[in-house]
Amino acid sequence: MSIGAASLQGQATNSPDPSPTEATRPGIITRRGFVQGGVAAVAGVLAGCESKQPAGPRRPLPPADQFPRRRLGRNGPLVPILQQGGDYTYSPRLVKRCMDLGVRSFDTAETYARGRSEVYIGRSLAKLRIKREDIFLASKGRPRRPGDILAKHLPASLSRLRTDYVDLWYLHELNDPEVLGSAEWRAAVAAAKQEGKTRLFGLTCHGPRLIEVMKAAARCGWIDAFMFRYNFRSYGDRALHQAMDTCHRAGIGMIAMKTQASAVSFAERLDPFRRQGFSKHQAVLKTVWQDHRITTIVSAMPSVRLVTENATAAYDRLSAAEARLLRDYAAATADAYCPGGCGGCRRECEAALDAPLAVADILRFLMYHDSYGRRHDARRLFRELPVQRRRLVDVDPSVLAAAERACPRHLALTTLLPDAVNKLG
Fold first, then answer.
1. Shared-domain flag, residues 122 and 211
2. What is the pTM assigned to this prediction?
3. Cβ neighbours of 62 (radius 10 Å)
4. Which tens digit of pLDDT belongs to each residue from 37-67?
5. How many CA atoms lie within 13 A of 10 on its CB side?
6. Which residues span the domain enclosing 401?
7. 188, 257, 234, 223: which is closest to 338 by C-alpha?
8. Do the Cβ atoms of 381 and 349 come closer than 8 Å?
């Protein structure tokens, strides 16, 4: 059985509050409060935000050992609520800044930065003489067979990272729930733990079978952590929240990725967050931390500035007015952003096109370009698509309109796809 590669918010009603030692920040906003009410006159909400004020002065941050932490799942360790992670290389300066701020958790993968990310993390940790026990280190791989975990993937990652073990290793981009019912995969995971190569085992899922995979993970008994896309646009996704509740009850630690959700599309004149001395990008992180089913956020922070900005956000709660603004903004712009995970791009939308255009991939690359500022990477990934998978000129406008009507999320594909191809091409 092989692994098929494919790539939120509110307090769970049955989720107990974490103990003070496990989640010292921030407050809780209920899911019901986010979901009810529909689009509540966004213009009215924003009207009071138009008079721009300068950001408040930056206050000194607490010592690194006071950075907020939560327990990873039922029996895992306490980990920082913010993790450094992304598809890029790491300099010693960047790693040191993470350590100084308390973001002492690093997430990478065997394929990130074309196989160089693990190498640079290992070099930086060695150069800075950071003790292995002082950090939480995670990596990922895509083994095709259970035996490949110990025969190939884990040893290679450990060698590049210059360590004897990782704290967490993931099956990356799993989109086949049957893997989680396999005795062979369970045995391979147990062997990796027994040999001390990894302390915990998890999976990531970017694909259309996310809900099925989450439920299978809750049943299987050998998944410690689950990483998935989760952001302020996920408030009303009932199926996702039910699956999250199931994983939470099973003791699985939940880790959020892709948390920005096109926050870059906020118009600056409608940005009230600077009044409080923090940015819109910090605000959307805060909404994820409000959900205490989420242990931590993996955030792409390729610069010292971004690490500092995001780490600062971990210490203050989001106000009710700011949370309401994000909810209303998400509802008002739902047709302009693809949240992913529904499978529609590869099923309804691409099928309606009757053309090989890679709708799902192109929209994901657009997110990298707009939301994460990774313009070079987004364009490179777009260029690496087969020509027929990225040629929008071959698609008749009427056919594109049919795909838009077929989209389960009602995305404005007739606008989004030309915009994406223009930016990425």
1. yes
2. 0.74
3. 12
4. 333 333 333 333 333 333 444 567 899 999 9
5. 22
6. 342-424
7. 234
8. no
